[in-house]
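Form 7-S
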Amino acid sequence: GLRLALSQIGALPYLLCMKREQTDIFISGGGVAGLAAAVVFGTAGFRVICVDPAPPIVDGRDAGADLRTTAFLQPARDLLGDAGLWDTWADQAMALNVMRIVDAAQMPPVIRDFDSADIGDQPFGWNLRNWVLRRDMITRLSELETVDFRTGVGFRGMVAREDTALVTMTDRTQVEARLVIGADGRDSPVRAGAGIGAKTTHYGQKALTFAVTHTQPHQNISTEIHRSGGPFTLVPLPDHEGQPCSAVVWMTDGAEAERVMALETHAFNAAATTRSADHYGPLQIVTHRQSWPIISRIADRLDAPRTALMAEAAHVMPPIGAQGLNTSLADVQTLRDLAVAEPDQLGSRAMLAKYNRARHADIKLRAAGISMLNRTSQAGNPLMQALRARGVGVIHDIKPVRTALMKLGLGR
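Output:
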């Protein structure tokens, strides 16, 4: 006991000299969702510190660049427009006017187009490269005097008090914040520190991401092709060196994904073209390839004292239907609206309970729907494939059902 007491006394000068800052909101995570939250709250006038252990890669040619793309649906576009971001992307965002479903397990293939004109005069969404998003969000953050974005440092732990949370970062500096937002990924340190559990589902799949050129124009159509193992999705991008270009998300069984990832370029192009059912003609890869395992993970709740979870810290879903980041931005919008409506209640138990009620049920509903679609797309049994194709036809061909599902997908 005496030795412990002496050690604590010896540490007092260090503790007293520790740098302690104050802010309204501390955000753990500098991915696209975390940066979007920092921009949105900074634009709304809140003081924000956003941290990420890794420096952002803001050039698609650099090793480790995030080559994935994100389709921003209409509500997300509106949120980012309010935050002063959307005009930056006007000449880079590729409109998604039609969502095409192709069941290539059937002969002839079953093809149905879901047209945004059925529910309004705007596209479903707009597709952008993730590394471009990060680059431009960081530029926007530098314009906001109330936002401090730091890399090379992350969340270490926190102590929640009645009026603030005391956050310790990995460099042992401390910040007092009224609200701590965990936007730090599927293995979120903030979620673990808050003692919030999560339910995880494994599908035995991996997703491969890359970009390709093709001979036939995409005509602003996002095309999802089903056989077995998972969907093969081509999402429109601007032309690449004069050729039509699309981003690809190829979901397939884990062993097959590893086999395909190991193919040399010519064989990989041939495999991708075959899997696409030759829908746009021969595919030619124009980026390096990335892969990651497909899981679903839903946090048991989104709130804890002085803490809110969002994005993949709160929900991970298979990349189907552009629900991932758009669900994350719905989290940001809900938090923003609650904070702006009652700024004196920022981070309070009442505010965070409202946030949990507003978002958790919707997240679970969307996750269940995406999981069902993914299981259906994995099916290799001919009977299940026939039923899948029949289901797509029924959903599309009954207009009230078609338009209701399109609006649900948009979050309207």
